[in-house]
Amino acid sequence: MTPLMRRLLPDVAEVTEVRGELSAPPLFPEEEAVVARSVGERRREFATGRRCARLSLAALGLPAQPLRSGPHGEPLWPEGVVGALSHCAGYRVAAVARATDLAALGIDAETAGPLPDGVLEAVSLPEERAHLARLRASQPHLPWDRLLFSAKESVYKAWFPLARTMLGFDMARLSFTVVPDAGSSGVRGTFSARLLRPLAPAFADAVGGPVLDGWWLVDEGLVLTAIAPPVRRTTAGPGNETSADRAGPGPSHPAGPRTSHRPAVTLSDPLPAGTTHRPAGTPSSPLPTGATHRSAVSASGPPAPA
Predict the structure, then answer these.
(1) CA 303, CA 301: separation in Å to the nearest integer?
(2) Neighbours of 99 (CB within 10 A)
(3) Which end of the chain has fewer CB atoms < 10 Å from its terminal CB, N or C?
(4) Neighbours of 189 (CB within 10 A)
(5) CA 148 to CA 137: how far, in whole Å?
């Protein structure tokens, strides 16, 4: 399998992405207990996500340890680590980095098809829908509504571990650009998300402002998005003030085609036929106005662990 998420993240991130399921390393008892009563599909995607995470953590030099779930189903990463998981039909991915390198990390994977009827209106702002209409006129082959949804999921996954508060789909305004990517398959670009709510102090301290910049990719039947703001470096300025060593507009890592410095895990066994996935926050019916993201949760059910 061609590394996909690897192309969207800086080299300080360790990424494990697979097509199919991983049967090793074994889950810890604490992890097994989380999905003991779940259906088979849910158990498989949870187990492979945890195994991907374990491989990524090992690449950082960390020992094997349980990856527990928080009260909202979010993965609880080891101290000093930022990370995120995602899964969709046929694809699982985990990305981690040291908290001394990245302030936050958000990733999302979706199948490259349109959203169900009514969902776009529930997860987007009027100006975003107008923006997507313009993009669709110039690039009609791309699933712009699914891309918007995925990017908002990545925003939420970067936001929540720092802010510890929910973030509604209407609390971030996104815009997209396409980046020429000579020599690479698929279509890639950047996106910018402006948060429309007061910033949680921990988030403001770590990220520095209300704008998050990320990358997106549509390739091999998948939509992938990622956000990885670097740690803010401060230096003493005039009058003993501090100023952040921030990158300019757009994502901080290079815009050129990326290759993996560590090959992605590739499996020869496909997922079971008929496997389906309800992406994080995707309901079976339109979300209500002001709906909030819930990691790996359907709108009609309780939180499920990522």
Answers:
(1) 7
(2) 19
(3) N
(4) 20
(5) 16
Q: Is residue 188 helix, strand or coil?
A: strand
How many angstroms separate the CA atoms of 146 and 291, rounded? 17
Question: 273 by DSSP, 3-state: which?
Answer: coil
The count of residues in the chain is 306
Residue pLDDT, tens place only, 236-278:
444 443 334 433 334 555 444 343 334 444 333 333 333 222 3
The single residue listed with the structure tokens 């429309």 is 196
Give the dihedral sign, CA 264/266/270/271.
negative
Contact between 175 and 131 under an 8 Å Cβ cutoff? The reply is: yes
- Decide if 214 contacts 190 (C-beta within 8 A): yes
Q: pLDDT tens across 198-211, in order?
A: 999 999 999 999 99
Q: What is residue 39's three-state secondary structure?
A: coil
pLDDT, mean of residues 157-169: 95
C-alpha to C-alpha distance for 35 and 121, rounded to whole angstroms: 33
N- to C-terminal Cα separation, the chain:
23
Q: What does the alpha-carbon distance between residue 184 and residue 205 come to, in Å, rounded to a whole number?
A: 36
Average pLDDT over residues 47-73: 94
Picking from 288, 247, 210, 261, the residue whose alpha carbon sits closest to that of residue 11 is 261
Tokens of 255: 């815009």
Q: What is the pTM of this model?
A: 0.81
The residue type of 194 is R
